[in-house]
Design brief:
about 30% strand, Gyrase A, domain 2, single chain
């Protein structure tokens, strides 16, 4: 069966790039254009949609049960301290628990996910799977993978960790992430770029002991398609968005009508059966009378012949782009203070509306207070601790840093 890989774009939501492959083709031509053109290629194919990593958050959690339904019910409350927004407004999809009951989680705003599904439905596309594009980036333990692109760069730092960055911010984002992982830096970085790219290659400097450059002969979507693994990549069509649930939603509005129709059908069949029995009885009586009269007129006749035909007929009714300058300026101001903080690990970086949003873990609350004190010494910065909680001898916090508006 042919497979169509469809990579969506968070900046231009009505446009996409897609790749149509069958079992006999290892690499194909990637097409670009409006979503309306994809439906033709999607006919008869299994559709795998790659959502942009910029629209979601990758994280993990330790759950107290291995029952998938109970995990789905409890997960929003286990993770609510990690998100500034109301968890009821988020859709969580997750992997099966490992031996230590740890699961990988993908969180996305329901409004955003609903918008993507509606755009696909509007052009007649019903995907078999929707995955984060970061989840299809090549992965091996101890290695960070960087997949270059004209506008965006995909960074994968673990089995279920990574981010999507504007190309102009990619190296600085990676540098900050590396500077905060002094305990376990990656052995090396693998940098994938197209051999025909007209833009200059990213310069990683001394980010890692080794940087291996892999030149791609085709489009990067061929690479993502090759490394897509249905067994390990999280399919976001779970819970309320599973295919079974979606079919159920289509069926529910017609359920009452179907029940009424079924009752009417049973009543109609019962009436017809009663009529049939009554007519059969009348026919038997008439046949008896005819036989009686026939024998009276022809007393020497030997019996008679009765033929019946029964016919039954059934009818089936049938976002503008982030500013690279503002992002780098904020990073430059806070990087040293972040690096000086003991046992600090950044789990998520986001930059929007001229604000740097950090999700991080520290050793204790005193370390968080000391970090805020150091950062506030710069009068051009506004520091807000959006949330902080202690768990497993660590403090998880969300920090928003805003610079002076220019």
């Amino acid at each position: 069966m042919a497979t169509l890989f469809l990579h969506l774009n968070s900046e231009h939501r009505d446009e996409a790039e897609w790749l149509h492959l069958d079992d006999s083709i290892a690499m194909g031509a990637v097409r670009h254009g409006p979503l309306s053109l994809v439906a033709n290629d999607a006919k008869g194919a299994r559709v795998i949609v790659l959502l942009p990593g910029a629209d979601m958050t990758l994280t993990d959690a330790v759950v107290p049960t291995r029952n998938m339904q109970r995990i789905a019910a409890a997960l929003p409350y286990l993770l609510e301290e990690k998100f500034a927004s109301d968890v009821e407004d988020l859709h969580f999809s997750f992997s099966k628990p490992n031996a230590d009951n740890k699961i990988n989680v993908v969180a996305i705003a329901r409004d955003t996910f609903d918008d993507w599904l509606q755009r696909l439905a509007d052009v007649g596309i019903r995907p078999q799977a929707i995955i984060p594009d970061i989840g299809a980036v090549p992965y091996s333990e101890g290695t960070w993978s960087v997949v270059d692109g004209v506008d965006t760069v995909l960074l994968r730092m673990g089995l279920n960790s990574g981010l999507s960055s504007d190309r102009g911010c990619a190296v600085d984002t990676l540098r900050l992430s590396l500077s905060l992982m002094a305990e376990e830096p990656p052995a090396h970085i693998v940098y994938y770029r197209n051999v025909d790219d007209e833009v200059d290659a990213l310069d990683f400097g001394d980010l890692a002991p080794e940087v291996d450059v892999e030149l791609l002969e085709g489009h990067r979507l061929n690479l993502l398609a090759k490394h897509y693994d249905a067994d390990t990549t999280i399919n976001m069509l779970q819970g309320d968005y599973s295919r079974r649930e979606q079919l159920g939603k289509l069926w529910r509005p017609w359920r009452a009508t179907a029940v009424i129709a079924a009752v009417c059908l049973v009543f109609f069949v019962a009436l017809k059966a009663f009529d049939y029995v009554d007519l059969k009885k009348q026919q038997t009586q008439l046949t008896t009378q005819v036989d009686t009269v026939y024998k009276r007129i022809f007393p020497k006749a030997t019996g008679g012949v009765s033929k019946e035909r029964v016919q039954s007929l059934l009818k089936k009714l049938g976002n503008t782009k982030t500013s690279s300058d503002g992002f780098l300026e904020l990073l430059d101001k806070v990087a040293d203070d972040l690096k000086k903080t003991n046992k600090l690990e950044i789990t998520r970086i986001a930059y929007s509306n001229k604000a740097l949003n950090l999700a991080l873990t520290l050793g204790d609350l005193q370390g968080l207070d000391n970090l805020k004190t150091r950062l506030t010494k710069d009068k051009s910065l506004s520091i807000e601790i959006q949330s902080a909680s202690s768990r497993n001898d660590k403090v998880e916090a969300r920090l928003q840093i805003t610079g002076e508006q220019r």
